Amino acid sequence: MENNIKQLLISGVLGDGCLLKGGSMSFSCLHKEYMDFKFKIADGFCSEVKEKDNNGYKKGGKIFTTRLKACDYGKYLLESSLKEQVEDLDELGLAMWLYDDGSLHKTNLFYNINTHAFSREDEENILIPLLNKFNIYPKILTETKKDGRVFSYLYVSKYQGAFEINRILNKYPLECYSYKLIPQEFVAKYKKVKEKFKGNKIT
C-alpha cells in the first residue's frame, strides 16, 4: 500500500475524514487547495475534487469534497482499535491531522488540537504517547461552553512542541492554512534559544 494513501486514511480517522463501509474515505473542506493537495498525493486514488453548495460549515457557502477509493488498508482500519489505526502515522499524516484539527494562538505561540471526539482514556493512553514520538508533549485541557457542554483538546505550549508542529507543517505548506504557521521572526528567535541551551530539554 502506497504510504501516502495510508497517511490520508490515518489522518482522516484522527481528523476530518469519514471512513466508509468497504474501506473508502470521504473528505470535505472549505478550502479547495487542501482538497487538491489530497487529490495530488493520492496519485489517482482519489476522485476529482468537487464543489458543493449549502454546506454545514457556512450557510450559503461552498465546500469542496473528494473521496479516497476503497482499499484493503481502509478495511483494516474499520476493524481496528484506535491504537492500531494510528501506529503507522508519520509526519505527512500528522501534518494533515494538524491542518484538520489544530489551531495556533499567535500571541503566546501555542497550539490546540481538537480531541473532543475521543475519550479521556484515548487522549492519555494513545494520542499523547503518539505525539510524544514526534517530540510534541501536550497536556489535556477542557473548556465548558455556556450551554454546559464540555470540550477537550490537547494543548501544546511554546517549548513543549509548538515549534516542532510548525516545522512539520512547513514541510507541507498550504496557503489556505498559512495562518496556522508561527511567524518566521519567532522561529528565528526560538532557534537561537535552542542553540544557546543545547543539551537541555527544549523541544
Largest sheet: 4 strands, antiparallel
Which percent bin holds the helix content?
A: 40-55%
Class by SSE composition = alpha+beta
What is the overall shape? globular
Care to count the β-strands?
8
Average pLDDT, rounded to a whole number, is: 91
Q: Kindly report the spatial arrangement of strands forming the biggest sheet.
A: 1-2-4-3
Write the element-wise H/E pattern from the N-terminal end onward: HEEHEEHHHEEHEEHH
The rounded distance between the terminal residues' Cα atoms is 33 Å
- Contiguous low-pLDDT stretches (5 residues minimum) are none
* Radius of gyration using CA atoms only: 18 Å
β-strand percent reads 15-25%
State the helix count.
Answer: 8
Describe the structure.
- By secondary structure, the protein is of the alpha+beta class.
- Helix content is 41%, strand content 20%.
- The protein contains eight helices and eight strands, in the order H-E-E-H-E-E-H-H-H-E-E-H-E-E-H-H.
- The protein has helices at 3-14, 32-42, 72-78, 82-85, 91-101, 120-132, 158-170, 184-196, and strands at residues 18-19, 25-29, 50-53, 62-68, 102-105, 110-114, 139-144, 150-156.
- The chain has a four-stranded antiparallel β-sheet. A four-stranded antiparallel β-sheet has the order 5-6-8-7.
- A hairpin with a 5-residue loop joins strand 7 (139-144) and strand 8.
- Helix 1 runs parallel beside helix 5.
- The longest helix is centred in the middle third of the chain and has 13 residues, at 120-132.
- It is globular.
- The mean pLDDT is 91.
